[in-house]
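Sample 1 of the test manifest.
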Amino acid sequence: MSNQSTSYYVNRRQQNWSRNQNTTRYVSAIKLGPVAHTVLVALMIIVLGLIYVTQATRTTGYDYEMQKIDSQIADYDQQKSELEIENTRLTALETVKNSSVAKEMTASADTQYVQQ
Amino acid sequence: MKPSVLRQGSRSRILAAVILGIAAIFVIRLFYLQIIQHGYYVDLASAEQMTRERIPAKRGEIYAMSGDSPVKMVLNETVYTVFVDPSVITEPKKVIDVMKQVAGGNVRDDFEDSVNAKELRYRVIANKVTRLQADKIKDAGLKGIGFQAVSQRVYPEESLASQVLGFVDTEGEGKYGLEGFENDALKGIDGRLETVTDVSDIPLTIGDRNVREAAQDGKNIVMSLDRNVQSHTEQALADGLKRTGATAGSVLVMNPNNGQVLAMANLPTYNPGKYFEVQDAAAFNNGTISAPYEPGSDVKTFTMATGIDKNVVRPSDTYYNTDSIKIDDRTIGNATKGHTGNITFQTALTFSLNTGFVTVAQRLGDGQNITKGARDIMYEYFHDRFRLGQLTGVELSNEAKGILISPDEEDGNAVRYSNMSFGQGLDATMIQVGGGFSAMINGGNYYKPTILAGEMIDGAFKKNADVQPVQSGVVTASTSSQMRDMMQTARAVSFGRTDKKGYNIGGKTGTSQVIKNGQYSDTETIGTYLGYGGAETPEYVIMVSVSGDNKQLQGARDALPIFTDISNWMLDYLKIQPKG
């Protein structure tokens, strides 16, 4: 049977208390009554509420920003779509056939193939 | 001892009781409103705060091929309908002036009356106003004028391939052609937006009941139809009609090696962007798929292929031609007379002699009669193998089935089948004939005719997987080869000089009598030509049909030159090198 040494964890605060037996704890002389407590709790609730309202309003602000960007995207999409249509109209066979460049072209000759 | 204020009967006690009673009423009322009526008021609030909108799906675009690249044939455009609320308009004259100046071509005839009709609240004054025009009108800062965005289809190629494309009606539904057949796929699925909005209808993300389902846009379809082939085919058909005096015509061009349609031309035609101006709805029909007719002598190739495949005839075999042949109580004659005596079946095909193909039908039986066995064989080949009288399943609206009478039916007698051997007594569409003919000349593989090549996904062309034949062994490779030779010889004898040298071009003329009031008309015929072209192997099949009221049109004189025009052009376009 082998011997195993066991180590115990002793936290530092406990060690300190043990070393400084004369340490005293400070106790405030200010006493808060029940009314003051209630007022403080109410104030905390109000502050938290304000923080919540501020955050909620901030997200709404983002909504307006998003709406503006969405609207811009829609506008650009529409402009892109219009340009595509214009491009397709300009490259349509009928348009090309009737173009001044096409009218000045000569008819193509038969294709000739070279035998190797 | 109780404090004096709470002594029984004191005024304070009564006041406390009253306050308590009122508070109780409040509590009960609030309980009623907030608990019992909760759902009702939530609904009321939702109706007030929530906006429900449909997010429209974008209709899919349609592409055609231009060589190897897809090009747009059908797109979407947002235009605006302009409306006014005359009771709000403060400067009617300015509204009229601005509308005339900016959108003069789009205003309604009575728009000035509408602007001045103070007793009305909503009047449309202009349609299809572009975004640029709408912006200019908005910039004028007019009161009482509004805009409604509307999506419309744009067909930049105008009437090109109109019967293949179809159109979209005012309800947004596709009609005819690909727009009709693939309407559900093209439409997509609308999305939905339910959200809390502010007074300006701007969606807000507050709350947990917002719903946003994105729209699923429609599929962008790429057709196998080639824009350049289509354009040349339509031009060749138009030239042909002008030359012959025919008033209607159709041409089908397809790839016999995969069933893909390269062109479908029909005249008269229309512009799908202005479909509402069409007077005769017949212009919407695609004649190559919707108009079954008696194919006439083109079918002789099917009869000959059946005979060769069943080893009852060879092209060099002979029969004795007297220019007429008797089947039961009917005598069938040749349209072309004089090639009498012992002649080959090649000669019968070259000069389109009816007697030759009735003889083939007889040889499928006992040699003298078109027996039930012969009719069963013909029906098997025509219907089950070449698929005449069956829907091909091509992805276009209004495909017609045609009629092929079975030998098991009372009308499926020897006389009917003798007529069928040279193309009468059955109704088939051009796409059926083209599909069956492709199988006959490509070595015996039947491919389903298709107009689809693939789809565009995120701007990239995704081709459909390589198609496999629906049926192999329709005829043997040997039969296929002999039929190609026969048709090449038939064409070379009379019409070969117009073809480019070094290619294998073959075909068969057809002249079909039109049935009017249940009887064959003597004054009206349809001219057709069915053929193929290529070098070592067939690369394209072309079928031409021309017709006109009280016009006697012939396959050789009227339809064949259109075939030749397209065929010679195809050889260059497909860059097919001549043999050897």
